[in-house]
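RECORD TYPE: inverse folding
INPUT: structure tokens
STRUCTURE:
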């Protein structure tokens, strides 16, 4: 496949985008013919238990029994199996795109021309932010926009466990239990407390129902009364009139801390007597409250003018927190939590031309299936949705009276159904606005049967293992099998859960695990050109009924191939076999691969030239070498199969090609370079921890996610791992709690009559317990009409993450240098716009509003990031993996990859410490990423997301060495130290508490590397010192000068 195939990411060839919600009021098409549209009267309320598979769901067609081969004799020289007569095929029809509903808006016929940048050659590749709606109809199968993603896992004690009490509200008056246990104490994340969500036993996606069509009513109620936005209070920074550009190394201005607007808890854990919070939530009622609400709380600091050339240390003392949308407090209090749903601009421009003028990208960042410590769950026979655009009722709708509500996305007036009049929380009647649906911006529904196209399928897991000589040599099989044995009872599922195994080298090996056998039987298929399933009925077995055979297999697998000399590897045929095995039910395929596939379809050749790793020129081969993996992924997606890829290799494996299998099937990619059981113990530990998280984290099957937005806004490009089924609908055969998504948006119609707009993400999925669930997140943001207000609401981290995703696409569709230029230009353009359009008094220097003061730093960090750097030796797979991660990880982890956090830790104290679950967690201040911050008598910890470095200075305080590391002196620090000893000293406890707390903040397990001057990893550590100059890249100060030059033009 050529790189042009990716152009669809930016819309060309994509579906005709109509405007958001009104256009797709409905629904999803059945994912494939295997689906039965609701003919099965299936009552989810009774479906908690195992469901027998419906007729016809499993392929039980005729096949010729093949003599099973006992595993003991199965190795080389095995009798070959002949292909049995064709059984019934699971035909799969590519998912159709949803038909636009009648009356929807006409897709824009023209694309907005890209903003033309007036500057010189360097300025050429600017982005069109949201300007170009995709054109053309979606070819049924093609174009999932996006790139692969990275991923992670591992348990974060505080947030992870999906279980806990889910509060279920049942709506029908009589029965309802209100099991609201205030779950686990919300753990503080980054300084604020996450509230409002609770883990649930499922995961999710949203399913449409064909009744939607029938329900379609007239659209659009009248426009809202014009809003009177309060005049923004501008505080232009006149505070630095014309200081000489003495670039002092001063510390952050005292008010830096005040920039971090404390994040409000998004959802009130509603305890019973619920305060009546939302009398006038809807946009129509905004005016009174808005007019009283000046922007004062935010404007002064967010727009304070900072001369970047003068104020050197711009980092806040602690984590950078997102801006708080400028909404009336009662609305903001219940707004969606920024960890789940975030916008690059927390004030939405009224028009596209205003947005174009600001030169800032408009988009959303989502972490829709995040593990939550509290999640309201509603069981209701009627899920109340807008009849016109199908929006779920939410805290930002308006109740005109007790019987009518106005949709906040399309403004249609809807009736309040009778049963919605009953409030299960207060057990009272006649208070629809107090229902949990209207009090929570994030909640989950147990979906009734019309949200099912077939009975919810069981959890199905298929493990596919590379057992070639190279694979066995790494020793990874021991770890995988051991981890499966340890976690086999913790796999999400119920009594219907199924499991199966495939191994492969130059042939494909299946395992008959049928109940009643005395031991697993291995079946070898050597005809990899035309792969078939030898005994289709006994290869996927019920985990509970066949657990002993499964455990037998796991115990013997590592030895079975111990002496293999087979070096070939037929990954493509193995994946085809996996697809056939799961196509009836859907499910999850976990592929473990250790080398470049060499046999059969999908075989690849090395494309990496090691001499080009440090090239300062464009990097080749970022796009796939074959479309085999993408096509197979789309087939998988059509049958609700997701493929997760674990790549463990010391050699080039062409991740750019292999990663497509996960990218388009909504899977995850894990990459362990230089994995080896003996030689890389830290890598083994990381792999073990990741596997545990992977095997036990929540999972949702048969998922779809739809993103709706208020009339006038439109979604055009998605980033993440999925297949785009229609304009705003993502197909996610699996959804996991560690996946992030980003969306670019544009403004199609002026929002002049609106005071606020809303965005709603609905994820419909089948939980591992066989429940159909819908998780709904709704975010409300104010609309503004001045550039200064737009700038005041800019979320620099969200902007940076969205730009990173866009740059990954640009690297593949155009070139790496093009992407790099575009990122640089993004910062130049926005600061130019600020200078020329917002600042009223010109002054020398490079001026930025305080809310964007970190923008150039983050852009420089991106240019030096593994994904985009040039001139520094970077292996191609490492680079491609970094690109995957930038597109697939949630914002918080992406930010650590881009701009690691550096702390001095040899002098930790309890001053200002956090108290979490009776543990005291020191909170050292964040340091600038420059070697001049490293003092030789200290120890510094760098948190780069998936890796943590502990750098020990040559003259490090001996107290730290003895009390924390348990070492007599600097020379005793080993070159490959990966853990901190558990010493009974205050210093050791503080340090371990801090490192442990950092690790708890994420679902994957960052490796700790203790390094000193002689350590091989010192170079990696120093490469993260992004403020410093290197042979191939500018220092931060030089970069600022470069930007200033461009801005002044
Ligand atoms: Zn609506």
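DESIGNED SEQUENCE:
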């Amino acid at each position: 496949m050529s790189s042009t195939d990716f152009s669809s990411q930016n819309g060309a060839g994509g579906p005709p985008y109509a405007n958001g919600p009104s256009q797709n009021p409905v629904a999803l098409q059945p994912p494939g013919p295997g689906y039965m549209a609701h003919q099965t009267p299936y009552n989810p309320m009774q479906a908690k238990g195992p469901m027998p598979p419906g007729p016809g769901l499993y392929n039980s067609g005729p096949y010729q029994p093949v003599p099973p081969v006992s595993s003991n004799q199965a190795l080389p020289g095995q009798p070959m199996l002949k292909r049995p007569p064709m059984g019934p095929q699971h035909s799969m029809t590519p998912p159709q795109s949803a038909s636009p509903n009648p009356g929807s808006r006409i897709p824009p016929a023209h694309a907005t021309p890209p903003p033309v940048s007036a500057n010189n050659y360097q300025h050429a590749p600017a982005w069109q932010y949201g300007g170009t709606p995709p054109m053309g109809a979606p070819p049924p199968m093609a174009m999932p926009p996006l790139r692969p993603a990275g991923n992670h896992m591992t348990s974060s004690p505080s947030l992870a466990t999906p279980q806990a009490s889910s509060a279920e509200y049942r709506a029908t008056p009589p029965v309802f239990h209100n099991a609201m246990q205030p779950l686990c104490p919300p753990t503080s994340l980054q300084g604020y407390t996450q509230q409002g969500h609770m883990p649930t036993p499922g995961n999710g996606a949203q399913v449409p129902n064909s009744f939607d069509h029938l329900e379609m009513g007239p659209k659009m109620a009248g426009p809202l009364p014009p809003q009177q936005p309060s005049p923004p209070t501008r505080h232009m920074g006149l505070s630095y009139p014309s200081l000489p550009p003495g670039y002092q190394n001063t510390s952050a201005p005292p008010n830096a801390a005040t920039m971090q607007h404390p994040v409000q808890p998004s959802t009130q854990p509603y305890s019973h007597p619920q305060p009546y919070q939302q009398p006038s939530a809807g946009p129509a009622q905004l005016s009174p409250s808005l007019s009283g609400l000046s922007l004062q709380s935010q404007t002064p600091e967010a727009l304070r003018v900072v001369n970047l050339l003068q104020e050197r240390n711009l980092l806040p003392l602690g984590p950078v927190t997102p801006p708080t949308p400028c909404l009336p407090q009662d609305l903001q209090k219940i707004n969606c939590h920024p960890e789940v749903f975030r916008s690059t601009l927390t004030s939405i421009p009224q028009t596209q031309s205003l947005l174009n003028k600001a030169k800032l990208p408009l988009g959303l960042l989502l972490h829709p299936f995040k593990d939550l410590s509290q999640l309201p769950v509603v069981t209701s026979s009627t899920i109340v949705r807008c009849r016109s655009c199908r929006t779920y009722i939410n805290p930002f709708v308006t109740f005109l009276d007790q019987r009518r509500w106005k949709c906040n996305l399309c403004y249609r007036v809807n009736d309040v159904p009778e049963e919605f009049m009953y409030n299960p929380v207060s057990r009272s009647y006649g208070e629809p606005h107090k229902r949990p649906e209207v009090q929570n911006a994030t909640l989950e529904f147990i979906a009734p049967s019309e949200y099912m196209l077939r009975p919810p399928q069981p959890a199905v897991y298929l493990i596919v293992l590379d057992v070639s000589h190279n694979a066995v040599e790494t020793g990874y099989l021991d770890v995988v099998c051991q981890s499966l044995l340890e976690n086999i009872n913790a796999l999400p599922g119920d009594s219907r859960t199924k499991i199966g195994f495939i191994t492969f080298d130059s042939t494909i090996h299946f395992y008959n695990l049928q109940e009643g056998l005395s031991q697993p039987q291995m079946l070898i298929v050597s005809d990899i050109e035309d792969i078939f399933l030898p005994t289709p009925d006994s290869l996927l077995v019920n985990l509970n009924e066949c657990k002993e055979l499964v455990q037998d297999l796991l115990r013997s697998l590592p030895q079975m191939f111990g002496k293999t000399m087979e070096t070939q590897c037929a990954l493509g045929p193995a994946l085809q076999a996996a697809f056939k095995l799961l196509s009836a039910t859907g499910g999850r395929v976990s592929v473990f691969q250790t080398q470049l596939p060499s046999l059969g379809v999908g075989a690849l050749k090395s494309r990496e030239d090691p001499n080009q790793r440090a090239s300062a020129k464009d990097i080749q081969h970022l796009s796939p070498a074959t479309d085999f993996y993408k096509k197979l992924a789309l087939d998988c997606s059509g049958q609700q199969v997701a493929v997760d890829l674990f790549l463990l290799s010391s050699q080039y494996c062409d991740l750019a090609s292999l990663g497509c299998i996960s990218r388009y099937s909504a899977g995850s990619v894990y990459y362990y370079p230089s994995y080896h059981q003996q030689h890389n113990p830290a890598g083994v530990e990381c792999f073990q921890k990741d596997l545990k998280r992977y095997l036990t984290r929540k999972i949702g099957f048969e998922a779809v996610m739809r993103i709706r937005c208020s009339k006038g806004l439109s979604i055009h490009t998605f980033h993440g791992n999925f297949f785009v089924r229609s304009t705003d609908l993502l197909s996610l055969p699996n959804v996991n709690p560690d996946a992030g998504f980003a969306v670019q948006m544009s403004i199609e119609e002026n929002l002049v009559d609106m005071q606020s707009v809303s965005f709603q993400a609905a994820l419909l999925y089948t939980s591992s317990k066989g429940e159909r669930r819908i998780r709904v997140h709704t975010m409300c943001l104010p609309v503004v009409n001045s550039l200064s207000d737009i700038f005041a609401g800019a979320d620099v981290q969200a902007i940076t993450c969205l730009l990173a995703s866009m740059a990954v696409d640009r690297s593949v569709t155009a070139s790496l240098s093009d992407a790099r230029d575009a990122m640089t230009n993004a910062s130049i353009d926005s600061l130019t716009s600020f200078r020329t359009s917002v600042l009223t008094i010109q002054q020398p220097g490079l001026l930025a509003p305080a809310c964007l003061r970190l923008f150039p730093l983050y852009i420089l960090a991106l240019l030096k990031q593994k994904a985009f750097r040039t001139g520094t030796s970077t292996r191609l797979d490492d680079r491609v993996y970094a690109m995957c991660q930038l597109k697939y990880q949630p914002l918080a982890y992406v930010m650590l990859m881009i701009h690691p956090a550096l702390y001095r830790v040899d002098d930790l104290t309890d001053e200002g410490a956090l108290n979490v679950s009776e543990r005291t967690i020191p909170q050292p201040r964040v340091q600038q990423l420059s070697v001049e911050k490293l003092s030789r008598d200290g120890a510094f910890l760098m948190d780069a997301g998936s890796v943590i470095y502990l750098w020990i200075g040559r003259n490090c305080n001996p107290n730290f060495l003895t009390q924390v590391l348990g070492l007599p002196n600097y020379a005793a620090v080993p070159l490959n130290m990966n853990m901190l000893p558990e010493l009974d000293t205050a210093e050791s406890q503080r340090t371990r508490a801090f490192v442990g707390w950092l690790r708890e903040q994420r679902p994957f397990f960052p490796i700790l590397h203790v390094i000193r001057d002689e350590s091989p990893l010192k170079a990696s550590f120093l490469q993260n010192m992004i403020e410093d100059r290197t042979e191939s890249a500018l220092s931060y100060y030089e970069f600022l000068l470069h930007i200033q030059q461009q801005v002044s033009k």
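NOTES: The first strand starts at residue 69 and ends at 70.
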